[in-house]
Automatic annotation (TrEMBL):
<keyword id="KW-0949">S-adenosyl-L-methionine</keyword>
<keyword id="KW-0539">Nucleus</keyword>
<comment type="similarity">
    <text>Belongs to the methyltransferase superfamily. RRP8 family.</text>
</comment>
<keyword id="KW-0156">Chromatin regulator</keyword>
<comment type="function">
    <text>Probable methyltransferase required to silence rDNA.</text>
</comment>
<dbReference type="InterPro" id="IPR042036">
    <property type="entry name" value="RRP8_N"/>
</dbReference>
<keyword id="KW-0678">Repressor</keyword>
<keyword id="KW-0698">rRNA processing</keyword>
<protein>
    <recommendedName>
        <fullName>Ribosomal RNA-processing protein 8</fullName>
        <ecNumber>2.1.1.-</ecNumber>
    </recommendedName>
</protein>
<dbReference type="GO" id="GO:0032259">
    <property type="term" value="P:methylation"/>
</dbReference>
<dbReference type="InterPro" id="IPR007823">
    <property type="entry name" value="RRP8"/>
</dbReference>
<keyword id="KW-0489">Methyltransferase</keyword>
<keyword id="KW-0804">Transcription</keyword>
<dbReference type="GO" id="GO:0006364">
    <property type="term" value="P:rRNA processing"/>
</dbReference>
<dbReference type="GO" id="GO:0005730">
    <property type="term" value="C:nucleolus"/>
</dbReference>
<dbReference type="GO" id="GO:0006325">
    <property type="term" value="P:chromatin organization"/>
</dbReference>
<dbReference type="GO" id="GO:0008168">
    <property type="term" value="F:methyltransferase activity"/>
</dbReference>
Amino acid sequence: MKETKSRKRQREKHGRPQNMASASSKIKKSSSDFLDKMRARLSGGHFRMINEKLYTCTGDEALNYFKEDPSLFDMYHTGYQEQMSHWPEQPVNIIIQWLKAHSSSLVVADFGCGEVLPGPISIDRLPYSFGDARLAKNVKNKVFSFDLVSNDPSVIACDMSNTPLDASSIDVAVFCLSLMGTNFSSYLEEAHRVLKPSGRLLIAEVKSRFDPNTGGADPKMFSKAISDLGFTSTLKDFSNKMFVLLYFQKKGKENSTRKGIEWPELKPCLYKRR
């Protein structure tokens, strides 16, 4: 039986809005996805630009860079955390466990701690390694947290080659993925200044920066330079795919020949577009 014209018009009348609403919803979703992708791409581009800047300038220049526009610091850490979320294991967690295995009376200096996030911080919930002053939030030790910008009273904003700490006042100095400036050696010299005799220096760095086959520094030369600074090597761990762990202990006697130290160049850790 043929469908009457009135029934056909009635069916089209009720069916058309539903189809149009469905199509409109798909267009909106597609537009939203496109905008999200564009925002992510722009954010990633800004991160890569800031990241390259930090690896290719001095600590003092980086400090002034963020003083001129503090919002760049937040932008950088957001991008860095996204990059770190792809790492299966976080070096800061290993350093936290090291501290928990030692006396909580040890005073710690965290060079390059990042900015503080509001509320309690859980190691299991946060996948990120750098930023948010996690070290201080997850150990019972007294921790002095340093970075280029501070949005929290617990973080001291400064050039890491010139901290406000007294000489021989710290038990443990930590550099977790933070030897970024072209004058990174001055950060390590500052760590030597503030560490007590027999104090510990804990370094975690991106593994590719210590791979001579890809333009990275020779880890033996790096360790020798730190030894010449006045430290003894206690651990070299290259077992992780993403990062290396280099631990040292400050010698009891001061080294009077530190000016002749040959520091290898640490290549910038630059991120490619995903």
